[in-house]
Amino acid sequence: MAVVFAAGAAALFGALAVTIRVALATDADPDAGALVTTAVACVVCIAIAAALGQWSRVEWSDTWPFLAAGTIAPGISQLLFTRAVGLIGASRTAILVGISPVLSALIAIALLGEPFRPALGIGTLLIVAGGTLLAWDRGRPRALFTLGAGLAALGAVLFSARDNFVRWAERSSSVPGVVAAACSLAAATLVLALLVAVGGSARPRIAAAARPFLLSGAIYGTAYAFLLSAFDRGRVTIVAPLYATESLWAVVVSAVVLRRTENVGLRLAAAALLVVAGGALIGGFR
Questions:
Q1: Which of 81, 89, 155, 212 is in the most buried spot, having the most CB atoms within 10 Å?
Q2: In 10 A of CB 141, how many CB atoms?
Q3: 3-class SS letters over 1-59
């Protein structure tokens, strides 16, 4: 089941980037869109957990790690991800976020005492090569690409920190995976609501983003339920390589749905393959 959930999460997260790109084409506010996406995802996870009867098995004192993790990722990270998609596109953002296996491994070595392995060095080189191919992409203004790439990379840092924290919490917790996802998304929704409120004119911005980002929220909720269920059932060496394939899924879906605006070519496909191969190598030999 860990394999099924991880593979499903990867496919859904790849599709998520594309649906966010489509929603942003309506000129909806990206911050309000991130809020709507996360709030809808939270409702989806709550409903899935209820359907599975998981709420009756919750020890609420064990949920704090997932609430804490949610404030950062998917809280702030979802806002960064949405803005990056608007600047550099769905597939490029997903590829850059695909560097998270390297960052996750480095964090695990530094903080969790995991040993350094040759696969980490080789995988890092593959991911750097993929990022280099992406950096040579001349399809967008350099300043916008740099800003978008920076936001995506920062999002990857937050995702990798989240992964290590959640894996640590899951080992000593009886909280079901979908409930953990719902808790994280609830905390993220609160953080994003505060950020949108600070920006002013919150109600009309949210109303304008509600319909365009509804599909993104439904996909996001299902994907997040799959991901935390995978971490709940399987080792990192099983989940990480499969989850890293979201970059390829994003490129494939972008090529089908966003042919003109995304400009998916051989260079982009090669970058995705290198990043996925690097992530799989790191995850497979940790």
A1: 81
A2: 10
A3: CHHHHHHHHHHHHHHHHHHHHHHHCCCCCHHHHHHHHHHHHHHHHHHHHHHCCCHHHCC
Backbone angles phi, psi at 185, to 5 degrees: -70, -35
Q: Measured between alpha carbons, how far is 269 from 24 in angstroms, rounded to an integer? A: 23
Tokens representing 23 are 């929603």
User: pTM for the complete prediction?
Assistant: 0.85
| CB-count exposure of residue 260 (10 Å: 0-12, 13-18, 19+) | exposed
What SS3 state is found at 220? Answer: helix
Residues 74, 76: Cα–Cα separation, whole Å: 6
Q: What is the pLDDT of residues 19-59, one digit of tens each?
A: 999 999 999 999 999 999 999 999 999 999 999 999 988 88
101-139 burial, b at 16+ Cβ within 10 Å, e below that, comes to bbbbbbbbeeeeebeeeebbeebbebbebbbebbeebee
CB within 8 A of 37, min separation 6: which ones?
20, 78, 82, 213, 216, 217, 220
